[in-house]
Design goal:
- With 97 residues, the chain is mainly alpha-helical.
- It has a single domain (9-96), classed as Metal-sensitive repressor, helix protomer (Methane Monooxygenase Hydroxylase, Chain G, domain 1, Up-down Bundle).
- It is built from 3 helices and no strands.
Length: 97
């Protein structure tokens, strides 16, 4: 299976992913500043929650693409569908750990 699934993502969707990743970067920088400035644990935790949410959103978009591409390529190439699905499920389950 071709590992470069991102090349299949629509350019508009790719821009959304990049925007979300830039948001994550901004939140991380904010947490760094907050820790340096001695902000409260509650304020820092709110930023960390925002980071987790933004990363989760990006993960879902990329996971959907991964699942779709795995299935399509398995059917087209005649690969062992059970093996491909098992690998895909294993990878996707790691998102929830």
């Amino acid at each position: 299976m071709d590992e470069d699934i991102l090349k299949y993502i629509d350019p508009e969707e790719q821009n959304k992913i990049l925007t979300r990743l830039k948001t994550v970067k901004g939140h991380v920088a904010a947490v760094e500043r907050m820790v340096e400035d001695g902000k409260s644990c509650e304020e820092v935790l709110h930023q960390l929650i925002a980071i987790k949410s933004a990363v989760q959103k990006v993960s879902v978009v990329i996971a959907q693409q991964y699942a779709n591409i795995c299935l399509v390529e398995a059917m087209e190439k005649g690969d062992d569908k059970k093996e491909v699905m098992s690998k895909a499920v294993e990878t996707l389950m790691k998102l929830n750990q």
